[in-house]
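Anyone able to model this chain together with phosphoenolpyruvate?
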Amino acid sequence: MRTPLVAGNWKMHGNRASNRALLDAVVAGIAGLKAVECTVCVPFPYLGEVAATLASTPLTWGAQNLSEHKQGAYTGEVAAPMLADFGCKFVLVGHSERRQLYGETDAVVAAKFAAALTQGLTPILCLGETLAQREAGSTEEVVFGQLEAVFSMSRKEDFKGAVVAYEPVWAIGTGRTATPEQVQEVHSFLRTGLPQDTRLLYGGSVKKENAAALFALPDVDGGLIGGASLVAGDFIAIVKAAAEAAVARPQRKG
Ligand code: PEP
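re: yes, here you go
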């Protein structure tokens, strides 16, 4: 059974006071929802406080990046054992902003994925095509290549517990959401290459208005939510939409 996951990506936003207010509201807003798992991927400096705030709640927490190295002279980097030390459950790997703005190659992403697994962290592997790649008709080739790079360093079985997030680059933070047809097409393609119990999230301008239609798709197991995860009411509505989609489809098997 693939329990849907809704993961918030706060990106580089927030401060101690606003984080606290946001988390208090989200924890209260999703209390009692059992059919869905919910996590927040927060900036490194806030991990300790977020961990303390969420420790006795159903919400889990994670980071947005990690080093491919375990320790050593890598100034400014944060290693997987450090994230585990803060009780992180998840870590984003290969987010398109990391790939595009910080030059993370498929090989580096694959090494980070493997580094996360060594510490028992669940990597959320982000993949997706640019607008130019979609318009050139190479979406499947691009996402397959991104997946293949990770398969070359980790065993396919390692994906059993992992999470894959399809995030078309042209839909992230742009307000332009992929249509349900576009999402289902890529997800069903990805599904054929992954263990059945790998959760496949969609990310890219998910909002409370479009969440239900996206989460109802047969190969969508939740979402990776950027901007809307910073607004408590919106994030709560999205988590509820995922829970309702799960209840409506109890037959979904891993
Ligand atoms: C993201 O940050 O991964 C993301 C999907 O952002 P947004 O929801 O704002 O498009």
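Residues 9, 11, 95, 167, 172-173, 203-206, 224-228 surround phosphoenolpyruvate (CB under 6 Å).
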